[in-house]
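Quality-control log, excerpt.
Job 1 of 2 completed; input and output follow.
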Amino acid sequence: MSKATQRIEPDAPPGAREQLLETASTIMREGDIVDISLSELSLRSGLNSALVKYYFGNKAGLLKALLDRDMKDIVDSVDALLAKDWDPETRLRRHVSAMVDTYYNTPYLNRLLMRLVRESDDEEAQRIADNYLAPLHRAYEKLIREGVRQGVFRDVDPQLFYFTATGAADRFFSARLVLKHCFDTDTLTEELRDAYRVHCIDFIMSGVLKHP
């Protein structure tokens, strides 16, 4: 790259890129939204908004980077789960538990994923699908196939299971307005998370386990 085309990094503290991503995550989590204001991002992070352009190109690039950060953690955790020497039922219970925790920590994640797939060009949408959706589907295929082979799972469709499990884990934590207007609370406490985790595991496993 010539000197004429080199980008000059604005003055920024170490870890500024990660700080911008974490602040954006916090804003969306607290506001129950899948968008951010660059002015609020700058105010909350204490960083110059010019750093968004330097690190990510624009706000859309920031949102893509946030999705990449959060979804990579999920794919890595699923790969680690499949590498464990556990029986299929234990693996699935652990996975559903982790899913609930994930959407409690990042309730915007599935909505952000759908937004970026919808608003991106075909190449970027395919990249997201190839990197994050396809690996999860393959993991479910493997996990369910092993459970069926061992006689502990019913022969459920892995694709439909993906939508069922993801929908169950995601929906609760992205419905704070429903909680507010119907149940007089919009606070997602750790106690509520723990109760919903038990609920999801019981319901999902009851549908998957092969009963005598």
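Job 2 of 2 completed; input and output follow.
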Amino acid sequence: MSTTRIRCPKCDWEPIAHPIWMCSCSHRWNTFDTAGQCPACGKTWKDTQCLSCHNFSPHIDWYETVETPKPKDKEKFVWFWQKNDKPPITEDDRLWIEENLLWLVELFTPEVFLSMKTVTPDKQYFDRNFTGTEEDVEFILKKVAAIMNIKPWEIQLMFFSDMPTKFSAGIVATPAKELKGGWTSKGSELLDKGFGNKEIWISMGQMNDPIGLIATIATELAKYKLQSEYAIDDDVDIVADIAAMVYGFGIFKGNSYFKFAQWQGNTRHGWQMQKRSGLPEPIIAYIMAWLAYHSNEDTGWKQYLNKTMEKHFEQCYKYIEENWEKVKWE
């Protein structure tokens, strides 16, 4: 028994059932529903562009005959306590996530949305030996801006210190007015100085943590893009967290959800917790799984996730695979 599989002959990307190709007459439809013929004007497209590798291939070459394996004689029995068919998030959270993701699909357009890939913490994207300098932060800003199609000169990079200062007598001063064991630091801020001048302020305490820096800068640049290009101001902080993952920075967001550090002087001690995302790890994992599933992306990059995030991601991806009718992209 055989079936027909539709995939790009060049990169093996498989399109989803969604109107994402546009004819010269401006009609938008799924070209594989009509074998390349526009339903509006009747034009037949002999070549089709892939939305992943952006190469053109003859339309007929997209169709591949695949032999379907025979069904198993008997399905393996699984005890009810061994089943794990729920994601590590609530149903309300799942619906909220998907509502925001589908809204971003329409905002960015499906073509742009599906062309985005997961960014990995390796030399493919960040070929640099990080030593905790201002130049390292500028390098990250330029790299992340390029991925998001933002010109880095549009934003000025600034630094501030939120770390405790040690004096010669052993007294430690902190930025908190009343230190009761520790304080929470935001780590970054996007400021509008007026007349189109934008500044991203980065905590110097992050300069030795490139993973956290990339996550922070990706979120601030996503916020900048939403505000400047799409005039989005309501709940922009949370939406920017999601948009940063849409642009491929989920690994960095998940692996740097929070950072804990201790300090000690001669007579005093304390701690600092820095939270880099408004979204908890299970929700970050579900967003990553939803994006990977709907773009048919190879998830080999999950090797870069920490153990907790990898577990959450696998649970979420399995849930989406088993409940695709519930989470499908209409």
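Post-run check on job 2. The longest strand covers residues 188-194.
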